[in-house]
Prior knowledge:
3 helices, 6 strands, 34% strand
Amino acid sequence: MKQTILSGLFLLMFMLVGLLNFGTVEASPTIVDFEIEIELKDGTEYEIEYAMKSSKIQAKYVVPREVALFGEEALPKVEAFFQKVNVIPDANKEKLIAEALRAFGIDVKDVDEFELDVIFDGDKKLTIQKKFS
């Protein structure tokens, strides 16, 4: 009898928590297509591209003083960049620019142009185009 009452109370608490929506966590949107290009005043360019097409991932990582990487070889570098920069649809654009520059070790005073285009699942988009000079 005691066990039945405890089981009933547990079930009731579980249902209340579900009704109140406690414990629900919304997943971050998945990046479907990503491209960033940063051009410095001296002409140096940084470029990362990432795209999920069907079940395949395409990637490109071209950064000065590093070997250019493409396809699966580029994925670890691209994923490391995503870990450093919080790329979400409603990101603060100035903060995102600062995070991206920091990830590459670029001083903002050296930047001529910054471009970012991202498409997330659900067709959410984020676009930044900024000329610094």
